[in-house]
Give the backbone structure.
Amino acid sequence: QVQLVESGGGLVQAGDSLRLSCAASGRTSSVYGMGWFRQAPGKEREFVANISKYGGSTYYADSVKGRFTISVDNAKNTVYLQMNSLTPEDTAVYYCAADVSRSTSTATMGLPWGDYWGQGTQVTVSS
């Protein structure tokens, strides 16, 4: 089992930045990749970004490319999501996910990705 705990969400204004963190514990050696999804009110959960365990590959949703950056610190078993130039459309609950087998590219195809999930952290961007 892998446990994921997110932090760093909050209320910001449009144009501001936030950095989300996700700390993994448990059988972290089994993790192949980690990433972030988000779910806005009344919408389905959507892929945001993910990264392979050693950072060799990263993928981003088109809506966040150029604004968000995902990174991983394996010594701390933590993945980060640096979010810049936030807009009200980024308002959502952000969930951290970890996958033990699927390629990180799978998430960009709309296919299932993520074996373990955190509880989520709220990000609210006011206009």
User: Anything to note?
Assistant: The chain has no helices and eleven strands. Residues 50 and 126 are 26 Å apart (CA to CA). The longest strand covers residues 18-26. The chain has a mean pLDDT of 95.
